Amino acid sequence: METMKAMAIEPSRVQRMTVVNLLMLLAFALLTAACGGGGGGAGSSAPATAPSQPASVPDPAPAPTAPPSVSAADLDLAARIYKGDARTPAGFDLEARPANVLGTVATKHLKNTDLATGPQGLTTGIFEICTNDLAQALDWSERQATWQGQYSDLTEVRSDARMFELVRVPRSDVNALIRHRVFRCDYLDRSGSDLRADTGAAGSMNQRPLTAAELEKLSEYLWQFTMFNNSDYAVESSVTASNGASLVHTIRMGQLIRGSAGGCDTVQISDWTHTMNTADGTLTRALAPVRSFQVKGSGVGAQSCTG
Fold it and tell me: Is 112 helix (H, G, I), strand (E, B) or coil?
């Protein structure tokens, strides 16, 4: 009986030890899961790691823009501007100064504002007046006969197919010469134009036939009465081209824009154009910038700032 009792007791001990061992294994497994252990297999509960971001690379700095090149023709133009004694190229129809006049020569195209009175004279466009009547031209000149506070005597009257010219000598300076000019309307009518505007209507050419040579002559003549015929300007070229039913004359010129002392100057190239409708003679004008380059004055004329 004792043996049987002892044998009966033994299975219960084994059963208690097994339960204890299972409880310990379960506690160990829970502890391992809480600490992030395990082999990371399919059943692993470890949180996913966020993918790393590539380092940002700054955009490359833009390559420096090379200054525009300066040609030999550019340097020649700049040298003429610096020198100041050759504003137009060979072949340009430039009016020469009268050789027999020792004093001032003042040439003026009479304008509508010369005859206007009151504030209405400032509200209209400014343009050169025209007439086919010499007596009318003489009357207009007489109204402008005062120069430096004194009367100017009429000494000569000239005319051609384009204009009347009334020559006067001021009593205040007998060595000076004043030339009043009035277009003939059957050559050129400038009404509707405004000399204050660089772009727009430029009148109507009424002579016939309407040719490229006549447009060139007119454009080069008008240029001489603009601000472009002044210091710091020079003409590079003067050409006429056909464009459909129009003729276009372009005077390409350079203007010197002076920089700071010791620095570079800028030459601005611009096109001054007159376009003529070959059917009715209507004229328009425009001024458009083309390009620029930088130079310095030197003892021999001009040198490029681009090396």
Answer: helix
Reduced to 3 states (helix: H, G, I; strand: E, B; else coil), residue 183 is strand
Section 27-49 average pLDDT: 46
Spans of all domains in the chain = 72-304
Please identify which residue in the block is written with the tokens 């003489």: 138
pLDDT per position as a tens digit, 245-269 = 999 999 999 999 999 988 999 999 9
Q: Is 131 helix (H, G, I), strand (E, B) or coil?
A: coil
Please answer whether residues 144 and 112 qualify as being in contact, where contact means their C-beta atoms are separated by less than 8 angstroms.
Answer: no
Given a cut of 60, whether residue 112 has pLDDT beyond it is yes
HSE of 35 in the Cβ direction (CA atoms, 13 Å)? 9
pLDDT for the residue 63 = 55
- Return the structure tokens found at 141: 């000149």
The rounded distance, in Å, linking the Cα atoms of 297 and 262 is 10
Residue 58 DSSP code: P
Residue 254 in contact with residue 268, Cβ under 8 Å?
yes
Q: CA–CA separation, 148 vs 143, rounded Å? A: 14
